[in-house]
């Protein structure tokens, strides 16, 4: 079979490979779902998967590369790359080796990308939608420069009041915002005054990390981010808002300390494509990245004499003045490069732009701390 014919066959049959085993859909006029009880149908699915898995890795890599370069560099077309990883295990391994990490390509492809550092050269532009009625916050990847686009959903959080503190439960499912769910990826916890916050990750930040003793009992693991390790609560960050006892005019002052993963060299380079046994594939998945300590502070604004207000240059990404607006820079070295900025553009719309060494999960958690009143801080 020629490569062109293979690509044509692939595009026509990829939807069949992604169908859930055990169910089939009826005709267009019949929306009922029927369980597959016939053994013959199961055998046909296995034969079809086996046919795709027997292709040469080099040929599969070329297919994935062409799909990615053929207009699937950005969402929503990037879902075609994800479809390649859903064909079978062989295709998943090859797709993982072809698709680069966010720090290299600047793209968020898989759920695991949400906890990987962003690009160094340019920030990833996102926006947050707030629902005051349900106390929920949704993070979207911006697809255009317009604030009106729908965006690609990434994460969601819900605010819960727990006696003397507040918690934000973060999930990959906007309809399942509970700490006991499979989609749980972490949480944010505040003190009584709302000036100190801890970030908890559902996965250990490094090998040998100890879970916090205050974790709630959970029977399920967060399988969408990393299915190879048990899920718990691991403290990975600390945010502190400084008191403003003199009530001096100015924005909030904050200080962040985070444990940020460092992309290893093996993830920046495409490994040689060869037949891997199951043990090798497992070792590749559970390879733990190195960890570095990142300390951030808010960038000091300048006083505008004509406007009589404190000003920061958000380069058009923030349009509404608010005490919630902030920019974070590193305390070690360059204090001009903004690593995270957050600002208001509407009643319940906020922009969030982040870059290396922060991940989307960390940036979202930091921005959540900006919501709500902070006593003696403003």
Automatic annotation (TrEMBL):
Polar residues bias (residue ranges): 8-18, 259-274
Database matches in InterPro entries: Tubby-like_C, Tubby_C, Tubby_C_CS
Any Pfam family hit: Tub
Domain Tubby C-terminal: 114-373
Region of interest (Disordered), residue spans: 1-30, 204-228, 259-282
Family the UniProt entry places it in: Belongs to the TUB family.
Protein name, UniProt field: Tubby-like F-box protein
């Amino acid at each position: 079979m020629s490569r062109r014919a293979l690509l044509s066959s692939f595009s026509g049959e990829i939807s069949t490979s992604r169908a859930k085993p055990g169910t089939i859909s009826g005709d267009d006029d019949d929306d009922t779902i029927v369980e597959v009880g016939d053994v013959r149908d199961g055998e046909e699915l296995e034969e079809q998967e086996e046919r795709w898995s027997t292709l040469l890795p080099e040929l599969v890599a070329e297919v994935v590369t062409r799909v990615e370069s053929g207009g699937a560099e950005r969402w929503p077309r990037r879902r075609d790359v994800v479809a390649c990883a859903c064909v079978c295990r062989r295709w998943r391994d090859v797709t993982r080796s072809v698709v680069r990490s966010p720090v290299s390509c600047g793209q968020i492809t898989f759920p695991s990308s949400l906890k990987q550092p962003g690009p160094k050269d340019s920030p990833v532009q996102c926006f947050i939608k707030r629902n005051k009625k349900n106390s929920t916050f949704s993070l979207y990847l911006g697809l255009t420069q317009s604030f009106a686009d729908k965006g690609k959903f990434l994460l969601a959080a819900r605010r819960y009041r727990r006696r003397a503190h507040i918690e934000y439960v973060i999930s990959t499912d906007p309809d399942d915002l509970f700490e006991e769910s499979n989609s749980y990826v972490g949480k944010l916890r505040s003190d009584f005054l709302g000036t100190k916050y801890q970030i908890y990750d559902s996965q250990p930040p490094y090998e040998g990390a100890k879970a916090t003793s205050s974790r709630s009992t959970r029977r399920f693991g967060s399988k969408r981010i990393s299915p190879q390790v048990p899920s718990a609560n691991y403290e990975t960050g600390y945010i502190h808002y400084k008191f403003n006892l003199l009530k001096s005019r100015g924005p909030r002052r904050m200080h962040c300390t985070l444990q940020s993963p460092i992309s290893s060299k093996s993830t920046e380079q495409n490994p040689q494509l060869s037949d891997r046994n199951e043990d090798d594939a497992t070792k590749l998945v559970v390879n733990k990245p190195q960890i570095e300590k990142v300390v951030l502070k808010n960038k000091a604004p300048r006083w505008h004499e004509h406007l009589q207000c404190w000003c920061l240059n958000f380069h058009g990404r923030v349009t509404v003045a608010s005490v919630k607006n902030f920019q974070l820079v590193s305390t070690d070295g360059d204090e001009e490069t903004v690593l995270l900025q957050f600002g208001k553009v509407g009643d319940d719309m906020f922009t969030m732009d982040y870059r290396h060494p922060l991940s989307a999960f960390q940036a979202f958690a930091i921005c959540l701390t900006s919501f709500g009143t902070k006593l003696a801080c403003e």
